[in-house]
Amino acid sequence: MLEYWSIGVLGKTITPSLSYFNTPRYNLDFQSFKILVILVIFKF
User: Fold this and answer.
1) Which of 2, 6, 7, 20 is the Cys-Cys partner for 26 at CB 3.0 to 4.6 Å?
2) For 1, which DSSP code?
């Protein structure tokens, strides 16, 4: 159940993030997102 939820979040997060590729904010958001994903993976 959690795996499907994570995939849904990934899809919803990555799609809007494509518009941030050329902005400094994108890099910061992507770093935070990767940390969040890692925490979720190790927590469960």
Assistant:
1) 20
2) -
Residue with tokens 């927590």: 43
Q: Which amino acid is at 37?
A: V
- Please state, rounded to an integer, the average pLDDT across all residues of the chain: 65
Tokens of residue 30, six digits: 């992507």
Is 40:5 a contact under the CB 8 Å cutoff? Answer: no
State the burial class of residue 38 (Cβ atoms within 10 Å of its Cβ: 0-12, 13-18, 19+): exposed
Angle at 18 between CA 15 and CA 22, to 5 degrees: 165
Write down the H helix ranges in the chain.
2-17, 24-43
CB 17 within 8 A of CB 29: yes
